[in-house]
Amino acid sequence: MFIEVLVLVDLLYSVIVFLTVQFLVCYLIPKPQRTLPPGPKGWPVVGALPLLGKMPHVVLAQMSIKYGPVMYLKMGTSGMVVASTPDSARAFLKTLDINFSNRPKDGGATYLAYNAQDMVFADYGPRWTLLRKLSNLHMLGGKALDGWADVRKVELGHMLKAMQESSKNGKEVVVAEMLTFAMANMIGQVLLSRRVFVTKGKESDEFKDMVVELMTVAGLFNIGDFIPQIAWMDVHGIVGGMKRLHKKFDELLNKMIKERNLMEFERKDKPDLLDVLMANRDDKNREQLSHTNIKALFLNLFTAGTDTSSSIIEWALSEMMKNPRILKRAHEEMDQVIGRDRRLEESDLPKLTYLQAICKETFRKHPSTPLNLPRVSTQPCEVNGYYIPKGTRLSVNIWAIGRDPNVWENPLEFTPERFLSEKNAKIDPRGNNFELIPFGAGRRICAGTRMGITLVEYILGTLVHSFDWKVCNGVEINMDEAFGLALQKAVPLSAIVRPRLSPKAYLV
What we know:
Protein name: flavonoid 3',5'-hydroxylase
Number of helices: 17
GO cellular component, one term: membrane
EC number: 1.14.14.81
Enzyme class: oxidoreductase
Radius of gyration: 26 Å
Order of helices and strands: HHEEHHHHHEHHHHHHHHEEEEHHEEEE
């Protein structure tokens, strides 16, 4: 009995000592400070969400002037860090690339992208790697792009012919509608071996409206993404809109794939991307793709492939029409390199240095994704001496970098010549020069970077070379922005075009 009491006393003593040590460690010994990046305090519960307004990229750029290149915002129950300079972007997208290689699971990924079964929102892992590999090999990579060059040439020929007819009738050309029709058919040929819109009309215009709506709602800061406890309320109706839009796209994609399968006997020897994906789906020895994965990937390629490139071309034409000197110099270069007896060919592009400078300047001033696509940290980390917690959302303000006076001289002016100077001539938009990252950088750089640059240079160059561009008398070009995942013009560009090449150049 005495021994048992001694054991009990000893045990009690050990517990008291342990608890005392824990108390001293937890409460009396100073902890190393973990300092978050500076940022606005925001409101109770909702944090900084109400501060962002309707133009978050602009508001965040203004905030960065006060709080610095790495800024932290409390957003509901989670946090968001914003990088606003080339050096801070490099720290996140290159140095800490692997830690920020996943996307947050927000409403866009869930309700638009088939619950992140696509390539854009999928977790960094085997399925994402396979989707990206197959897309590069058969559509987006250099060799694949060369293999589909004839498709781009033919579809662009159809567009030029339609524009020539409009010019004869004195009709305005709505640039965004025209570009969406042509690009959707280019992509349709690669994905499904068919033009998805035979004629420009109601169906193609509705598709354009759906794409714009998707890019708009996917870029909104939805309160339910940041305060999950009230997500079910759908306060602003954003999720309801996403669900309705997803249903439309799902019906359209099912229809496209079904119609393509019915034309199997008409197919040529060259496989399209659907062939490749279906063959992989049936391969039991590899990572498997479902029918939903295929539709989700097609949604990525159709929407991003048409909207981001068309918006850049529309901004470039708008800037050139507002600056006739730039349009004139572009015409002079093209007349010297190509002449007026034939159309521009993709092989001409390396010789058109001023056209390339115009494209770079448009990527700088009007990036198609102003806040890049969001990423999220998988582990806590440190940037510039600041602590970044696990699960922090990352936005890189590409728009702010492109308009930073510490990076660019007279950044609000549209000056292609800046990219002809020795200082900037080697700057390239493919993700290696962080002063100009319109497609992002690192592992999650836009998979369509190479295709996007090719389409912008080739289509913009062809439109500039083929026509003179004018607005109706008394009409001023509106340069206001409409925020979304892609940066649209608030007022679409309409123009009167006049052919400037020999008539034979417009034959399909």
